[in-house]
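Researcher: Final request for today, and then I'll write up notes for the group meeting. The sequence and the SMILES for zinc ion follow.
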Amino acid sequence: MTERMKNALADLKARQERGEYTLCPRCGKNTMRPDLYTNALSRSADIMVCGMCGLDEAKLAFMRAPMSLYQWAALQSEKAEGDFRNFTGQETWCVLKDQYKAKMFNLYRQYLGGENPEEIRFLAFESIPGLTQIWTEPYQMKFRCRDGSLIVRFKELSGGWEMEADLVDGK
Ligand SMILES: [Zn+2]
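Model: Predicted protein-zinc ion complex:
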């Protein structure tokens, strides 16, 4: 579990205890009983989840296939504002290079450093607008634009890394 996730869970737990967060943090539904401690203590984190999720966790634990915390409803990223649907691929590429290059490289460095791919996905969607998909095998990002989809990749050069982009699915 990452620091960011630990903090998010601690915050949710405090809000649960104050009665401010009443949805189930795992499934996101209005399925929590009003008396917090009659719900189920999660097996994945120190926080209460609804009875259905408690049963589901028990079942998945038995199958040795627990659900990742990255799939919890309350832990989804808030997508960065904005997109490139009114931009051509060329314009999108210019904006990305001008304004988001440092962020994109930073994420790529974390990926090379062995950061959990699910954490990279979370941070990418939260910090880079218009991102429609990110893959880590191999590492590439996809942005929908007016005339197709822009695929951004990273390549190693002597002395560092460079980004390159291809416009695909163009009409
Ligand atoms: Zn639930």
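Model: Helices lie at 3-17, 51-62, 89-112, 117-127. Strands lie at 40-41, 48-49, 131-136, 139-145, 148-157, 160-168.
Researcher: Thanks, that's everything.
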